[in-house]
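Let us practice reading a record.
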Amino acid sequence: MTLDNIHLYRMTHIGNIPHIMSCGIVHKSSPNADPNYIAIGDQSLIDCRSNKTVAVTGKNIVLGDYIPFYFGVRMPMLYVIQHGGNFVAQARSPQDIVYLVVSLQKILQGNYTYYFSNGHATDYLTEFFSANDIDRLPKLIDWDAVLAQYWKREDDIDLKRRKQAEFLIKEDIAPQDIVGYVCYNEAARQQLMNYGIAQQNIRICSTAYY
């Protein structure tokens, strides 16, 4: 794995796509925030991140100030979003969930403030890294864990944490830095195309869902 071929993934409701196409991936406190944003995440986790401070190379940052991305798909949070539970308001059909795909290289070439972690950001075992460590990122992330289809193994109780390694970006991400969209089926792809997304930028991948 090299920096050139790493992509970042963020899940959203398909109904949010028109605003994202216009304004990009924006922070909830952004002046460009979507007043009609459809939330799909765990509200208790969102609230936790809003106030949780973590140490990164001698400074403290608040997780809620950053937009989080995963390094892969089929994460534990997706399972909860699809099936309900925890503090997810309602279960969502996979057809309604879209992955926004961002090129890491575009982020590195842009004027973005970022950090990354080797596991779920709220876990006490997780370590955080800054732009000074970016060349080491391919070796700091456990790619076998990220790409694992499931996260429960009796011989590796830390697998779930490592699978959910994160890339955190402080600024709104420009629409042109979104390089693709992953969806569940043909109906979802057609809806994305109706929004104006080019077919070549959409990939159907049902195995990225539960």
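A brief commentary: DSSP finds eight helices and ten strands in the chain.
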